[in-house]
Amino acid sequence: MGCHICESLEKIKNDPYFIMELDTGYAMLGWFQRFKGYTVFVCKQHASELHQLEYSFKMKYLEEMSLLAEAAFNVYKPDKMNYELLGNGVSHLHWHLYPRVAGDTPKKGPVWQLPNEELFDEATRPSEEVRKEMIVSIRKEIERLLTKK
User: Fold this and answer.
1) How many helices (H) and strands (E) does the chain have?
2) Would the pTM count as exceeding 0.90?
3) Is position 108 within any domain?
4) Residue 125 maps to a domain
5) Taking the alpha carbons of 44, 50, 53, 59 in that order, is the dihedral positive or negative?
6) Could you give the CA distance from residue 61 to residue 102 in angstroms, rounded to a whole number?
7) pLDDT at residue 1, as a whole number
8) How far is CA 1 from CA 4, 44, 46, 73, 89, in A?
9) Average pLDDT value for residue range 94-100
């Protein structure tokens, strides 16, 4: 059986949650926005572990992931960003970037302490208008940050 992410990469730019393509990956808005500004950074190369990437690609991938996190931080002004690279469910490198604010969960801790029904509640899926506004805001901030380099 192939990799679900690899199989979807050629169509990723048509995904309604696509933000933009960077050199090493694709910036995506999370389908559910229980944590406003939640984004995902999907690696262009198939690997399940960071150490499997060629060194210079890996460093660029980490830099670009950090750039997406900074853009989401600048747009949504959280208290803290959470960075997750798990891969137990889908073994293809992809970062989950969660903007966090004080009191956003019943007790301090990772987002996955919440039940799936809450994390993936359809009520937290942005409307088409809101989704488009979020994507444009994050894309503009990424572009602004790239011009500062």
Assistant:
1) 4, 5
2) yes
3) no
4) yes
5) positive
6) 29
7) 55
8) 9, 19, 14, 37, 14
9) 97
Task: Measure the CA–CA gap between 78 and 45, rounded to whole angstroms.
Answer: 30
Strands (E), the chain: 18-21, 25-29, 39-43, 80-84, 94-100
CATH number of the domain within which 69 lies: 3.30.428.10
Antiparallel, parallel or unpaired: β 39-43 and 80-84: unpaired
Tens digits of per-residue pLDDT, 105-145?
A: 998 989 989 999 999 999 999 999 999 999 999 999 999 99
Give a yes or no: residue 82 inside a domain.
yes
Which of 100, 95, 120 is closest to 26 using CA atoms?
95
**Cα torsion 114, 116, 121, 126: sign:** positive
pLDDT of residue 67: 98
pLDDT tens figures, 19-40: 999 999 999 999 999 999 999 9
How many other β-carbons are positioned within 10 Å of the β-carbon of residue 29?
23
Give the amino acid at 14.
N
